[in-house]
Amino acid sequence: MTERPAPEMLRADLVVEYPFTRTTGPVIGAFLTGLRDGRIVGVRTSDGRVVVPPVEADPTTGDTLDEMVEVASNGTVVTWTWLDPPRPGSPWDRPHGLGLVLLDGADTPMLHGLLVDSPEELETGMRVEAVWAAERTGHVHDLVGFAPEGSGVAPAPHAEDPGDEPVRSVRTPIRLEYDFIPSSAAQEYLHAYAEKRILGNRSPVDGAVFVPPRGVDPRHGVAATELVDLAHEGHVGNFCVTHLPIPGRTDLTTPYVSAWIHLDGADIGFLGLVAGCEVDEVRIGMRVRAVWKPDDELGPTAENVLYWEPTGAPDVPVDEAGNRAWTARRDRDETGGPADA
Amino acid sequence: MGSLGERTAVLGVGQTEYRATRGDVSVAGLVREAALRALADAECTWADIDAVVIGKAPDFFEGLMMPELFLADALGCAGKPILRVHTAGSVGGSTALVAASLIRSRVHRRVLTLGFEKQSESNATWALSLPQPFSVSINAGAGGYFSPIIRQYMARSGAPELIGCMVAYKDRRHALRNPYAHLHQHDLTFDQVVEAPMLWDPIRFSETCPSSDGACAMVLGDEAAGDASDRPVAWVHGTAMRSEGNNFPGRDEVSPQASRDCAADVFAQAGITNPRAEIDAVEMYVPFSWYEPMWLESLGFAELDQGWRMVEDGSTSLDGGDLPVNCSGGVLSSNPIGASGMIRFAEAALQVRGLAGDHQVDGARRAFGHAYGGGAQYFAMWVVGAEKP
């Protein structure tokens, strides 16, 4: 049995990250302000218990809580586990324990790192004390973790000059790393681009051609496996003249025209850049053709088409442009008119 | 379609002030502010609430994952169910409708429902413009998506070029009468609206919604709870949701089939055959000014391609119009995204309760709340009335 060699599986690293802000409000703000100053504070609930870290609402009654209570910076390990190695993005750079620590004066344990060299040094019920960062900024990382009482790893408990402004917000960057793998239909579409071809996907139900191919006809819920080559010409179904820069596209000067390009032979549009004419010359129905990268720069990507330029041919009528083309053709078919070639 | 089931009443509404930045409260504090005001309006306590249904915009809009978990305590959910609803920009509306369905189906007697967003902690345009490998990245946020659709409406309807500016000016004037509104532009002139810079031609900066922090909550109750209320309640006369794909052959992007079907359903439930004559106040989701005439047509308040005439002749103004639209100032004046749909629903309820304050439509008996989301793919609507259906 022979097998056709599979084309290279396309994949790419996709990183999504943003430095989100979190407004602390008075209660979490008091906790973070306390950490900055080398103190740990909780909040007293309506039944007199002290919750650490503090919460804004009573866990039982839902009432608003605001009585802040300082607790000790040492306490007892209630339970623990061992992490080896630390996960990516962890605040700790070596294997460590992760435990629930019931601080003296608190009624709920808090989760934090247990800073010892091996799990043999940990046991439930052991006494631990806070390990503070040398430089503290009003962030949860000001408290590095907990170490066995008397182990002497804790630097000075108070910052030199913490200032007296309470903490009101913190930065909480979020970073997600994806191994981006296009669908099988998209894989074929992208590989075809490297050969300077644009593929669509024909519905087995009504013949509608989708671009990019999806592998399914989403309206009828059936698989669509037939791929068709599409022309490199079409018309502008619709467009936007954008005066704002796009994050990550430093090569685009504003204003630029992004348009729904409806290729000849396709029944939906896809987004493309229109250039090669003045911005105010772009029209709904304007005929355009692809301007490709040089052949030796082609790769498996839709970015091979640099932009779409006017062909100069007569416009498609506005009421048959874009998605109206499908409706117009259907109406013609129903009235016995000529179907599209 | 289908039966309304248990009669459902809006017992209370609570809103935060909508502001560019609420630097004084956390997300938990923000949602509690709205929830506590709704409880007070409904003359309820946390103990009276059987379940909580919350909604917010997509997680990446503020980097807040699984809010239904970390806000459970803040929303008094110990020992109760909490559900999160997620339908992009329409989420505030669909969240309210999921809450209403829990009453209508007699699963619960009183449900707290809430939508929120703290846009100051993030950047929604960035979150809507995430590049995809192997693709051409040229879509700059929601305005970039909706601008071509507005252009198509303008071409098809022949509407005068400044209709959008008229909507924006009207809604900003309305907002001056709503203390909760984010934008209070007392000195704004129509010329300033017209002269504002183009962002996504044909959308000017002045024709876009702001980025807001805020939350909106409602307490919904069953018929017995509505009957027992000492304060006026709004009765739910109809609810509907629809969705559709955002790109398929023959799609009418200007007036999506899902929008038309949803409106037909909700008005049929409410026994309304002439929406313009039978609805006294409209709160519709208009994040870009031109969507007012577009939705007026799609929803059946105006004939095809004629919605802009209602803007031009002042029909949608609180000052003398027969169908005041967005008396609160609308999304164009306050846009905490996850709450924006619920604000529409809540403002409709306030109108028929007679509690809309300075932006009250005199004698409003029936009002319409509307939300849409995604690429105009998700629709949520309700009709509320002063009388029991």
Concise description?
The complex is a heterodimer of chains A (341) and B (389). Chain A is mainly β and 341 residues long. Chain A is built from three helices and 20 strands.
Task: Explain how this protein is built.
- The complex is a heterodimer of chains A (341) and B (389).
- Chain A folds into 2 domains: 19-175, no CATH class; 184-334, no CATH class.
- Chain A is 10% helix and 35% strand.
- Chain A is mostly beta strands.
- The model of chain A is unreliable at 336-341 (pLDDT under 50).
- In chain A, the strands form 6 sheets. In chain A, strands 7-6-5-8-9 form a 5-stranded antiparallel β-sheet, with no helix packed on it. In chain A, strands 18-17-16-19-20 form a 5-stranded antiparallel β-sheet, with no helix packed on it.
- Chain A contains 3 helices and 20 strands.
- Chain B has 389 residues and is of the alpha/beta class.
- Chain B has a domain at 9-123 and 210-228: Peroxisomal Thiolase, Chain A, domain 1.
- Chain B contains 13 helices and 11 strands.
- In chain B, strands 3-2-4-7-1-8-11-10-9 form a 9-stranded mixed β-sheet. A two-stranded antiparallel sheet of chain B has the order 5-6.
- In chain B, α2 links the parallel β2 and β3.
- In chain B, α3 (91-104) crosses α13 (337-353).
- Chain B is globular.
- The interface between A and B is large, with 74 and 63 residues.
- β16 of chain A pairs antiparallel with β5 of chain B.
**Can you count the beta strands of chain B?**
11
Individual helix count of chain A: 3
Oligomerization state:
heterodimer
Contiguous low-pLDDT stretches of chain A (5 residues minimum) are 336-341
